[in-house]
Amino acid sequence: MKKLVLLSFAALLIMACQQKDTRYTQNSSEIDVVKKHIENYNTKNYDTSIMADTCKSYFNTKNKPILRKDIIAYHKANDANYTKRGFLSEDQEFEMVVTDNGETWVNAWLDWRATLKESGKVVDMPIHLTYRFIDGKIVREVGFWDPTEIVLALQEIEAQRNITVE
């Protein structure tokens, strides 16, 4: 009986020490892909090879995605408004989670800064990005931020143009 208790205890101890699947981490190959994606954005090297062909990007929307084939044009159109723009290197936070359904997501909290081309106004804003991965590729990109300051600044620039024309 004593041997049975000791054997049972040893079996429980071994099972308890076995490594479980990682459900949360701040270091993963998927996080490295997102960091490279951020670096590519900052250097205007729009490399979509890390995205699946079917990838959809949702920026401040939940029902109007930008398709992978259109994402470069989207960024270039926005770049026309800035002399410089990009994510700041300080205070970046990344995490990877595996959901109860087995989906792999990487979350990023970043600060973004841009200088408007026509006014020289500098805008800083926090941005949250999240990426769903399948087989090492981004299949969904979601970003949320408050664009109010930029929208108002661009409207002010447009109003100044209209006053000058009249």
Explain what you see.
The chain has 166 residues and is of the alpha+beta class. The protein has one domain: Nuclear Transport Factor 2, Chain: A, CATH 3.10.450. The chain is built from four helices and eight strands, in the order αβαββαβββββα. It has helices at residues 2-17, 29-42, 68-79, 148-165, and strands at residues 24-25, 51-59, 66-67, 82-87, 93-98, 104-116, 122-134, 137-144. Strands 1, 2, 3, 4, 5, 6, 7 and 8 form an eight-stranded mixed beta sheet that branches. It is elongated and about 95 Å long. 10% of the residues are buried. The mean pLDDT is 90. Residues 1-19 form the signal peptide. Keywords: Signal. This is SnoaL-like domain-containing protein.
- Main sheet summary: 8 strands, mixed
Spans of 5+ residues with little confidence (pLDDT < 50)? none
Number of individual domains: 1
Shape designation:
elongated
The amount of helix comes to 25-40%
What is the chain-wise order of helices and strands?
HEHEEHEEEEEH
Write the CATH architecture name: Roll
Alpha carbon gyration radius: 23 Å
Total helical elements: 4
Q: Quaternary state, please? A: single chain
CATH class: Alpha Beta
Termini separation comes to: 99 Å
Assess the beta-strand content as a share of residues.
35-45%
Here the CATH topology equals Nuclear Transport Factor 2, Chain: A
Instruction: State the secondary-structure class.
Output: alpha+beta
Count of beta strands: 8
Overall pLDDT score: 90
